[in-house]
Description:
Blueprint: E1 11-14, H1 18-29, E2 34-37, H2 43-60, H3 66-74, E3 76-78, E4 90-93, H4 99-110, E5 118-121, H5 128-132, E6 141-146, E7 155-160, H6 166-178, E8 182-187, H7 194-197, H8 199-210, H9 216-225, H10 232-239, H11 241-254, H12 265-272, E9 310-313, H13 317-328, E10 334-336, E11 343-346, E12 349-353, E13 367-370, E14 380-386, H14 392-404, E15 407-411, H15 420-436, H16 442-452, H17 459-466, H18 468-482, H19 491-501
Amino acid sequence: MNPINLTHAPVLVVGAGIMGVGIAQVAAQAGHAVMLFDTREGAAAEAKAKLSATLDGLVQKGKLAPEAAAMTMGRITSIDTLDEAAGAKLVVEAIVEKLDIKRSLFRQMETLVAPDCVLATNTSSISVTAIANGLRHPERLVGMHFFNPVPLMKLVEVVSGLQTSAAVAQAIFDVSKAWGKVPVHARSTPGFIVNRIARPYYAETLALLQEQAATPAVLDACLRAAGFRMGPCELMDLIGHDTNFSVTQSVYEANFFDKRFVPSLVQRELVDGGLLGRKSGQGFFSYAEGAAKPGVPAYIPAVFPTCRTLVVMGSGALADRLAHSLHQAGHAYTRNTGADWVGLSVDGAHLRQTDGRAATLLTNPDTVVFDWLLTTETGAVLAVAPSLRASDTWQKQAQVWLRALGYTPVAVADVPGLVVARTVAMLINEAADAVHQGVCTADGADAAMKLGVNYPAGPFEWLGRVGAPVVVQLLDALDAHCRGERYRVSPWLRMRVMLHMA
């Protein structure tokens, strides 16, 4: 198929809900004539009127020029029948997430539009290949997955089904860029890029809750300290537990019940009880008027304690950071760069970064493990877990050492991998599998997760900072502890460790 140019193409948007109106807005702002249709009588006209009011509000706030608002609205026409859209060169569907309804719509569109019209679905979870089944020209159907709110969110997943033409996918990629978006190519597999790679962000916290590792407030605080804008518990409350649980179920079923995607009993109980989050007034947290949200203790600075012997163990960026902090404080120490763990040995007691094993399983009884340090922000919350054999004295002293290093230690149960390390390692692992299976590129995965769900870094950016050997060691420890398929290491990561060792 020859290259397709959609630069000035008339656009039909089917579905006048939040997503459809947002798509119509960005297309019109980019200069396209846009037709907006909805099966509910009057819905398209109502949606256009609401959009006009929204743009007027932006004008009044000085965020949009009056001329730009007028031109945008002048390009949008609400239509009452699909017959009026026969001249469309790009159809973007943003209707209910039901396969049969989407298939029926596109079969109808094939009878109305020209053979060179591109058909795009905004589906977030349904197979593009399945939607194209039964079309006379399945090669012209492609996924064009926007994120809510469409005018603000930059990411567009350009999803190719088995029969999608490369020229069609590239045309959608190019027009997405022209609309001010950042498009990323994806293959049509369950969850595409974002909804697939993001599953561990919710799943690991739900597993930690089931293991009674910590409270929702503590788990959220740990992950916010690592740079995430919202903790997983407050984010699930915002999304709605019914919606989040449904997506998890669909990904689980679509992957033939792969244990990596198994839904959570904790979340199912919330759904069964109607505790859906913000929209019901109660989820992990209460949203009743005046309800106080639980937090974590404030940072309390400390000075480095005195000791007889202090050794910085291991090598790499973290060991260097620990040594630098001690040097700045004028504290005497030695280094053991050949050690197979990273942290501090204080008078024989160990304060060490987690390698995925529970502290109690390590040789030294006086051991406290701490989470991955993905931030240098003073006072950042940091999960710590003492060995069940550790003395009370060392447990207290370890917290003082961490506060002196500039962190706010919060105690969690002695679970393997703690909170941030376990979550980020699984995000990296899922992204590695997506690349291994040809769903996307590493750069595409990084862009998708930063722009689609506002992650502080892409999974492969984290991998570059932490290193494949550290990630694989942690996942292998989790796999050995849990004895299941959930923490199996991606072959792509295994290969990177082999290359590192070569």
